[in-house]
Amino acid sequence: MNTTSAPPINLVQPGLYSHGDPFTQWKWLRANDPVHRHPPTELPGFWALTRYDDIREAYNDHETFSSAHGILLRPDEHGADPGGGRTLALTDPPRHRQLRGLVNEWFAVRAVRALENDMADIAQNVVERALEAGSCDFVTDIAARVPLYVICRMMGIPESDWEYMYTLTSQAFAADDALTRRIAHLEILGYFDKLREARAADPGDDLVSVLATAEVDGARLDPQDVILNCDNLFVGGTENTRIAAAGGMLAFLEHPDQWRALVEDPSLLNSAVEEVLRWTSTATHIMRTATRPVTLHDRRIAAGDKVVFWLPSANRDESVFDEPDRFDIARKPNRHLALGFGEHFCLGSMLARVELRLLYRELLTRSPHLTLDGQPKLLDSIVVNGPERLPVAFGPQGRKESP
Ligand code: HEM
């Protein structure tokens, strides 16, 4: 028990993640109230889990902690999540396993290895273009483009549409007003509807064709389920990797000794990527709904209660990580939960790791003297955390040809 006085606890203010300090609240909760009853605000009330072991255990018990009612907090008046019971992320077994089985092999080690040359070309071209400009916004000009182009390729989106999809995702994730975000998202869904129809009639070797022609229990997926699952893959494939890549770059800029260590010894890249994932923990919260009463640390959770895992808190848990508040690219072991755990462990984990590795490899060979070129801006969101804007300059070395 930590005797320091309790800070005011409110984990659902978006401003906390752009200019506040959630870590102080999480640290206090881990020590004093690991199953905290968070009162309703404009969002419903929930149980907040902040300790690594508790979150891992709950992740492992998908029968008690269901995903089918949504995995993100949303206001009651918005009603049920439209993907509930239909998408990969929002189903429980057995439906979840059937859906995951359709696409699993596309994200397995062998498939990702086969894509590695294409991904390296994408990372090279994106960095090259930014270097030519001399400075850029790392988030929109570099970090957003690499994962977007990769998932576009896997989904069979024609290259001529990649810029259009880039514009739509930029608006859907980052536009200042909710209406623009919503319209852009609806356009993405509309795009997948047309692509689904085309690929159902004339399938190719891509993920949309897989979903559009797949049979589960002897029947094709409902067209709406195809669209929602395309959206799940597309958003999953772009949003977190963009923020993790940019958040990792920000961590390197704030810890120049760690960037120098990586420039001097690129064999640290794999452990550096794991530390970037732990440090950035871009998925801020993941929700489950209890299917039956359960007791955790003497707290009675009722069937139907919402239980929220705060992943960045788990990844700073002092009982698991030595010096958790130190950004250490050589950290080992590093069994973080940034990609989730258990039944719904991130489908794109391998892809994300390779994308981050290729991107940082390109940057540290082409632009080892990258610097901050203005004030970073962090996202105002309780769903994902990290940079929304990260102005960087490459310096003269940045324009040299790679050896
Ligand atoms: C750094 C990048 C990434 C992070 C931090 C991340 C994080 C996560 C987390 C925490 C979950 C678990 C959600 C839960 O427990 O309910 C998850 C699931 C998922 N992720 Fe990722 N992700 C990343 C990259 C990707 C990429 C590149 C893809 C490619 C398509 C992807 C697709 C998915 C999908 C489809 C799921 C749902 C899996 C399921 O429910 O079975 N993610 N991700």
Q: What attributes does this structure have?
A:
403 residues; alpha+beta; 5-stranded mixed sheet; 14 strands; binds protoporphyrin IX containing FE
Q: How many alpha or pi helices?
A: 15
The total of beta strands comes to 14
Task: Identify the overall geometry.
Answer: globular
Proportion of helical residues = 40-55%
Instruction: Describe the main β-sheet briefly.
Output: 5 strands, mixed
Number of domains: 1
Proportion of residues in β-strands: 5-15%
Q: What's the helix-strand series? A: HHEEHEHHEHHHHHEEHHHEEEEHHEEEE
Protein name: Cytochrome P450
InterPro entries: Cyt_P450, Cyt_P450_B, Cyt_P450_sf
Family: Belongs to the cytochrome P450 family.
Pfam family, one: p450
In terms of topology, how is this protein built?
Blueprint: H1 15-19, H2 22-32, E1 35-38, E2 46-49, H3 52-60, E3 65-66, H4 95-103, H5 109-133, E4 135-137, H6 138-143, H7 145-155, H8 162-174, H9 178-201, H10 207-213, E5 215-216, E6 219-220, H11 223-254, H12 256-264, H13 269-280, E7 285-290, E8 294-296, E9 299-301, E10 306-310, H14 311-314, H15 349-366, E11 371-372, E12 377-378, E13 387-389, E14 391-393
Parallel strand pairs: 2-10
Antiparallel strand pairs: 1-2, 3-7, 4-14, 5-6, 7-10, 8-9, 11-14, 12-13
The structure holds protoporphyrin IX containing FE (HEM).
Residues 67, 71, 88-89, 100, 147, 151, 232-233, 236-237, 240-241, 244, 277, 282-283, 286, 338-340, 344, 346-348, 351-352 line the site of protoporphyrin IX containing FE.
InterPro entries: Cyt_P450 (IPR001128), Cyt_P450_B (IPR002397), Cyt_P450_sf (IPR036396)
Protein name: Cytochrome P450
Family: Belongs to the cytochrome P450 family.
